Amino acid sequence: MACKQEGIEQINTFDINALSIAHQDVVLNTRKWLDQMVVGLNLCPFASSVITRDQVYYAVCDATTKAEREQSFVTELQRLLGTNENSIATSLLMFTTGLEDFDAYLDLLDWCQQILETADLTEQVQLASFHPQYQFDGVAADDLSHFTNRAPYPTLHLLRQDQMTKVLAHVSEPEKIYLDNIKTLNKLGRQKVEALCPWGR
Fold first, then answer.
1. Model pTM?
2. Long-range interactions of 4-10: CB distance < 8 A, separation 24+
3. Mean pLDDT over all residues of the chain?
4. What is the DSSP-derived secondary structure letter of residue 128?
5. Burial class (CB in 10 A: 0-12, 13-18, 19+), 41
6. Which is nearest to 26 in space by CA: 41, 9, 10, 8?
7. pLDDT tens column, 13-66
C-alpha cells in the first residue's frame, strides 16, 4: 500500500470536505489538541502565531511499511524546505497506523534525525516528537510530564530552526519552558489533563 498523504495548508479556508473522512478526523483531532492543549495551556511559544496565521501544513500518512513511512518524512522535509516560510512555517506529519508502539516510533524518529545529520540540515530543520504514549526516559510512568509530548497520533513536527531561534530570542529563559510546562500540568491536575488528552491515559 502506498503512503497516502493529504495536506491542509489553510485549515480555515481549505475545502476539508475534499479529504477522506478518515483524514478529516486526523487533522481535526490534531487541531483540537493544538488549540486546547498546546496553545490553550501555552506549552509552546511558537505554536500560537503560526496556527493563527494558518501557516501549519498537516500531512496524514497511512503507510503500512517502514520504507513508506520513511519516504513520507522525506517528502514533508522537501516540502518544507521548498516552500516559502510565509506559506508553510512548520509541518506536522501524523501517522495513522504502524507506530502504535512507542519504541517503533522512536526507531523512526532516530532514522529521521540521522537523515537531517547526514544531509547537513540540522541547522535548518529541527524535529519535535509526539506520541499518544510518549514516555520520557528515566521518569516514572505515571508522571504528568509525559503529557507535554502526548498527541492523538504518532507525530513528527518539522520546525524551521531560524524561526525557532527568533521566537526563543524573545523568551527570557527558554531553558525553563519544559519545567514551566510540567508545573502547568501539575497545577491543572491529572483529571483535567487526562480529559484533555484521553488517548494518553
1. 0.89
2. 4/60, 4/61, 4/62, 4/63, 5/59, 5/60, 5/61, 5/72, 5/75, 5/76, 6/59, 6/60, 7/57, 7/58, 7/59, 7/60, 7/79, 8/57, 8/58, 9/54, 9/57, 9/87, 9/88, 10/54
3. 87
4. E
5. middle
6. 8
7. 335 667 788 898 999 999 999 999 999 998 887 788 888 888 899 999 999 999
